[in-house]
Amino acid sequence: MNKEYEIIIRDVLKKYRKDNSLSQEAMAEKINYSRSHLARMESGERSISPSSAKYIIETLNIDFIIDKNTIDEFNSVFDNFYISIVKEDKTSIEEYHKYIIDNKDRILKSLCMYRYYVYNLYYRTYIKTPIDLDEIKSIENRIDYLSNKDKQLFYDLTGIYYRFNNNPKMAMTYYKKSLKINEDKLIYAMTLLHMVRIFTTSNRYSKSIKYIIESKNILKRYKMKERVINCDIHLALAYSFMKDYEASIEIYKRLLKDPDIINNISKYNIVINNLLWTYFRSNKYRSIGNNIKKIPDKYKMTLRDNVYAIILHYYFMNDDKESFNEWVDYFKDEEDDALQRMIIEIYCMYFNGTDVRELLGKVNSASSDDEDYIMILNSIKDKLKSTISRI
Predict the structure, then answer these.
(1) pLDDT digits over 227-237, tens only?
(2) Is 234 exposed, middle or buried (0-12, 13-18, 19+ CB in 10 A)?
(3) CA geometry: angle at 279 spanning 277 and 285, to 5°?
(4) How many domains does the chain fold into?
């Protein structure tokens, strides 16, 4: 019997004795053990074999499952649940979570009870439902009941909890605990990427790049291509934040040649959006136009609002009314972004011949906290001022 299971059995025996108001001597007599033998079992000085555990549980008629076949079945589900997590297999995650919920009462009366708490915690984190800190602390207080692999996952989940609750310092503490265990390389890689989110928000981009590359190398070894692609996207963003636009652009251009990107509208949206905005930030306007022409017709109706925003700005700046009118019809503005709506309204008014001075006054009244939209507003102002000076 492994160490975690022995700890659980000791707790079950102690709980039974307490619930039935038995002294060690009285309980020992029930199972034909000496008091000292039972005392050493409860304290951990003496190991508990599977046969001894089975004998005691059955003799005392304790409602607790230690049957090997049942425990093997539960563990197989949890182990496959774990594999689904590291592979981000959404269908299997749902399937295995349903199993543990359907079998909750049996699992909580078995040697796998604490695995249930960890994996249910994972699922609730995964679907972003509220989690009580007391629930996390309850598991942490019994951390020795978990295998190293489950401890590693639990510490990563606790880090996520604190990050979601705006406590990056505590999040980093738990992420580091997870990394220190390092029982499973894929969870290790996942934790590195979770830490990157904190480094990025605190402008520690060189640290982000180091951790992304380390995570990517692990994921490549395990042939986790979709997650390697995610690492490349994170890496390109980090280079862009550091204003190393060339490095960022090279990654995005490589990704856009990958069939897995081209055939995935969600991933394609992210990459083309980030590439066009990176060209804009680095003043490579001609490259924006070249890449707009390469957007497949099948995706023109399904792009993100941010992609339409940079495309429409490009055609506005180039006085290309025909291309602007073609693309403005695709723009849906589902995010209800008032500033974006106003900017596109200005473009439309400009192409419809509205007085440029009126438009400049409208632009001057706009403000934004977003660095990219500040650049767009300034770009519009410069064009309108230039137009006025020619009148």
Answers:
(1) 999 999 999 99
(2) buried
(3) 115
(4) 4
